Amino acid sequence: MLKSTKTLAAIAAFAFSAAIATTAQIAPAMAEEAAAADTQIVGDPKKGKRVFNRCKACHTVEEGGPNRVGPNLYGIVGAEFGHLEGYKFSANLMELKAEGKIWDEETLSAYLKKPKDVIPKGIMAFVGLPKEKDRAHVIAYLATFGGPEAEADAADPAP
Ligand code: HEC
């Protein structure tokens, strides 16, 4: 009887340590995944099309589309500030353009979250998209309409 109790205890101890070992291996992997999900949400252009409804009162995005209250946004992702001639941008935006500011995804996301954080005296009267997901989706949608990368591909087609 004593012997089998010992054996049981040994089995239990083994199972316990195995469980700890497994948890210890899984925990960092889960933490890593969570961190990745936090920093880089993958934008979905289809969802972004819906988010863009909130921009449409002021912006078109198709190639050669008209300016409205805001400029046409064709090719905006990766482009320089004030990416288009024939639209009267704010003085503040033009100053930043002169400094060489670019609409990379990070800058776009900050601007769409809170326009005044990027262009304090800018004229885009938009409340902002508080959800990171919405910003990622709409940027992914904008990226389907031209931009420096698309132009580079067109100029240098893959063999
Ligand atoms: C109420 C009208 C309005 C709404 C709504 C609006 N914008 Fe704008 N947007 C503007 C105006 C006006 C400017 C010009 C800003 C300036 O010159 O300071 C602008 C500028 C921009 C620029 C900079 C363009 C460039 O060439 O530098 C981007 C990018 C942009 N808007 C994206 C968006 C997106 C994406 C949305 C929707 C999530 C949106 N805007 C919603 C009016 C608006």
UniProtKB/TrEMBL annotation:
PROSITE patterns: CYTC (PS51007). GO terms for molecular function: electron transfer activity; heme binding; metal ion binding. It comes from Candidatus Phaeomarinibacter ectocarpi. This is Cytochrome c, class I. Pfam families: Cytochrom_C. Residues 43-146 form the Cytochrome c domain. Keywords: Electron transport, Heme, Iron, Metal-binding, Signal, Transport. Residues 1-26 form the signal peptide. The lineage of its organism: Bacteria, Pseudomonadati, Pseudomonadota, Alphaproteobacteria, Hyphomicrobiales.
